Amino acid sequence: MAEAKRPTLERGLSPRHVEMIALGGTIGTGLFLGAGSSIKMAGPAILIVYMVTGLFMFWMMRALGELLLTDTSQTTFVAFIEKYLGKRTGFVIGWTYWIGWITIAMAELTAAGIYMRYWFPSVPVWIWEVVFLAALYSVNIIAVGLFGEMEFWFAMIKIVAIVAMIVTGIVMVIGHFKTEAGVTEISNLWRFGFVANHGHNMLAAFQMVFFAFLGIEFVGMTAAEAKDPLKTIPNSINNIIYRILIFYVGALIAIMSIQPWMDYSANQSPFVQVFAGIGITAAAGLINFVVLTAAASSLNSSLFATGRMLFALSGAKGYFGKLNRRNVPMHATNVSVILIALAVLVNYIFPTNAFELITSVASAAFIVIYAMLMLAHLRYRHSQDFLKSEQLFKMPGAPVTDYLTIAFLSGIFVILLSRQETRLTTILAIIWFIVMIAVSFRVKKLR
Predict the structure, then answer these.
(1) 182-183 and 178-179 as β-strands: parallel, antiparallel, unpaired?
(2) Minimal CA–CA distance to 202: which of 49, 56, 54, 421?
(3) 319, exposed or middle or buried, with CB in 10 Å at 0-12, 13-18, 19+?
(4) What's the rounded Cα separation, in Å, for the pair 304 and 322?
(5) Phi and psi (nearest 5°) for 8?
(6) CA 104/CA 90 separation, integer angstroms
(7) CB-CB contact of 346 with 105 (8 Å)
(8) Do the beta carbons of residue 218 and residue 97 sit within 8 Å?
(9) pTM of the prediction?
């Protein structure tokens, strides 16, 4: 009797979808909302933090790209971790990656509720969380092409908003526009001090900036559903460094030139604060809509990632390995959505700092995931697979850049452990890894 055909995901993502998904992965709530907190911590020196973190994230993505192009049929990059670091490591990182995206989705859901307060301050945040989760769940279970199209336009809105912010900053600097905070000048970056609080919170800013980059590896989740992965994946990864310079650094320079960095609130989007500060209330409302779409975009990506991840963890078998008639992992997506909905409970218990708590959990988990990815790349470089490979998309500077990236990630983890605000959640992440390692020894197929 012939073996039943294994279910496969549909290659419904066009090159423009993959390009915009990669771009959307590098621009999210960490920039639009978290930048307010980062600016307060580090001052204009936050630009250095973004550039340093961006460089290491670029190296990580080049390592990922090199691995992906050895086998573009893999649903997630965790398959390479399993291949080169062993089944037990793959098991632990696979489930951690899934739960990591669950926490990212919870953070984005929380952010969406916070943004809606701008227009409806009396409506509880949890109501908006339910509305957004239900709407984007519907998009994700219909077809991968619809997901790609939705993500394309979400990313386009973010790009237009950031470009508009940069252009506004340039025009106001050239015209020396006056605002309530003073004259718009590029010298606002340094005339009130380049580093906040004598640099005491400089290292702490790395945690929020690192969170801003979480999801950058999401383009790796599209390889199995992209129409031309050998072309689109390298192009998307190589463009990341330019996006970081233009969209992150460029936007922050514009923001801190228009309004001195001391005038920004840590718990509100600096993009909204800029336009409110220069007296353009309508524009502030428009920017709030943009940052809302950024949260929706990241939540949309999270739903996509968690469903595919759980599908991959099942080995495309059993309950979670079933696809609906549109080749979407319906059951895996359903379970992920139920867990993401727990963000409603977190916001109820911790109404004032739910976003910070969730982001610190996600950061701790992804540090380990990215470090394991770099170790897998190192192991690959010493394998016969690499010696026989003829691909040209190789990570620059390896293995030195691998070791430097691992050292950087380790430093971020130490920062999380040393800060009182993030110590508990980081310890919880450590406990998670200990439990998952113990579970891995109980799973027969890993022996």
Answers:
(1) antiparallel
(2) 49
(3) exposed
(4) 15
(5) -125, 150
(6) 21
(7) no
(8) no
(9) 0.82
Looking at residue 181, its amino acid is A
How far is residue 233's CA from residue 67's CA, in Å, rounded to a whole number? 11
> In 3D, which of 111, 31, 71, 80 has the Cα closest to residue 375?
80
Residue ranges and CATH numbers for the domains of the chain are 15-389+398-446 (1.20.1740.10)
Q: What is the dihedral of CA 243, 249, 251, 257, to 10 degrees?
A: -160
Q: Which alpha helices (H) appear in 27-124, and where do they start and end?
A: 29-32, 34-42, 46-68, 78-85, 87-116
Q: And the tokens for 384?
A: 């016969």
Per-residue pLDDT tens digits of the chain, which is 447 residues long: 344 455 555 555 555 656 666 565 556 666 776 677 788 888 999 999 989 999 999 999 999 989 988 887 776 788 899 999 999 999 999 999 888 888 878 878 888 888 888 888 888 877 888 888 888 888 777 765 566 777 778 778 878 888 888 898 899 889 888 877 778 889 989 988 898 887 777 888 888 788 778 878 876 666 555 667 777 778 878 877 777 778 788 889 998 998 888 888 776 778 777 777 777 767 677 778 887 887 887 787 778 778 878 887 877 677 777 777 767 778 888 888 888 888 777 766 766 666 666 767 778 889 999 999 999 999 999 998 888 777 778 899 999 999 999 999 999 999 989 888 788 888 988 999 999 999 998 886 776
Give buried/exposed letters for 57-93 (b at 16+ CB in 10 A, else e).
Answer: bbbbbbbbbbbbbbeeebbbbbbbbbbbbebbbbbbb
Which of 274, 281, 277, 282 lies closest to 254 in space, CA to CA?
274
The tokens describing 125, both together, are 């945040």
By the 10 Å C-beta count (0-12 exposed, 13-18 middle, 19+ buried), 160 is classed as: exposed
Residue 91 and residue 199: Cα distance in Å, rounded?
Answer: 40
Nearest CA-CA partner of 299 in 160, 138, 136:
136
